[in-house]
Design goal:
alpha/beta, four-stranded parallel β-sheet
Length: 125
């Protein structure tokens, strides 16, 4: 089997680029995680009512609400397919508009919302 030097160099360059991108992505995720942790700690320690707007995008919401979305520009950058990183019964109110239709299975989100708010009797989705 003949070794093709050009092909080998191309593969090596591609790997080096991939590794650099992977490192950048992990650094960005760590920064997002640290920022989210700080925002959540501030919310919990403030003693004020915590109200979340899920799927808010980068637009400003009503005063007193914390915006949550997976895209930059919101207060908390979270993947809504994962459980909300708040203690049980720590959220007073959750608002979301035009978000659930993007989920194949919205039931886990409903369960998560019930857990962090403490309201389990009635949820209209």
């Amino acid at each position: 089997m003949e070794l093709n030097f050009e092909s080998w160099m191309t593969d090596l360059e591609r790997f080096a680029t991939w590794e650099e991108e992977w490192i950048k992505q992990n650094q960005a995720l760590a920064e997002i995680s640290d920022r989210n942790h700080n925002v959540i700690e501030q919310l919990l320690q403030s003693g004020e009512t915590i109200q979340l707007e899920l799927g808010a995008g980068s637009e400003q919401c009503r005063e007193g609400w914390t915006t949550v979305d997976m895209f930059p520009g919101c207060d908390l950058q979270l993947d809504l397919r994962e459980p909300l990183p708040f203690p049980d019964e720590s959220i007073s109110m959750i608002y979301s508009s035009h978000v659930l239709e993007h989920f194949a299975y919205p039931q886990p989100m409903k369960i998560c919302c019930q857990s962090v708010t403490g309201y389990s009797k009635k949820w209209d989705f």
